[in-house]
Amino acid sequence: MRKILAVLLAAFCLVLVAGCSDTSAKDVDLKEILGKFNSDFDLSDNMKEITDVNDLNKYYSIDTNDVVSFAAEIDTSGLDEIVLVQAKDAEAAARVEEKLQARYDSRSKQIASYSPENYEIMKKCEGKTDGNYVRMILAESAQEMAEVYNSYF
Fold first, then answer.
1. Is the pTM above the cut of 0.85?
2. Rounded to whole angstroms, what are the CA distances from 100 to 64, 96, 131, 137?
3. For 59-110, what is each residue's pLDDT tens digit?
4. CA 121 to chain centre
5. Where are the alpha helices (DSSP H) in 48-89?
């Protein structure tokens, strides 16, 4: 009887541990997502890929020590801007989100002053944090891109 009770208790503990484990810690290939955006959506022909983490600091003031991986492209002459970042931890993700929000706010003010139609598009765009992943998508298809992004999680 004690052996059966011990086995049942062990099984219960395993189920409990498995049920409480963090399944949100997924390893997502951000470059794959960016590639999907490029193949599925009509982005500007003037998109420049940002490949050096130091450029994240240059364009967004993101501390390079906060970044595990990233994928980013910026339109050198228009609205489109896509930044996908995997941060080191939750605190780093909050700092990255803050920097991307500052960039969003700056771009919104800039675009509002000279392009009302692009400003209307900007108002539908957003930055968002999902665990240690942070995204900012500025594009006409931002909402559809966000759905594609979310499908990877």
1. no
2. 14, 6, 16, 10
3. 999 999 999 999 999 998 888 999 999 999 999 999 999 999 999 999 999 9
4. 19
5. 53-60
